Amino acid sequence: ISFLVLFSLPSYNNFISVHFISDIRETFQQELRETHKNDFYIISLITNGRGVYNIDDERIMVEKGSIFLLHSGQYCSIVEETDIEGIRIAFSPHVFDNMTRNIANVVKYTLFRNFNIIRIESRDFHEYIEECFSMLLVESKTNIHSFMYNPRLYSMLYYTITKIYEYQPNVNNGNGVTSKTLELFIRFSAMIDDRYKTMHSVTEYRTALNVSHKLLTECAREHANKSPLDMIMEKTVFEAKKLLNYTNLSIKEIALELGYREPSNFSTLFKKHTKVSPNQYRERNSNKLSSDAQKY
Question: Is the pTM of this model over 0.85?
Answer without folding.
Answer: no
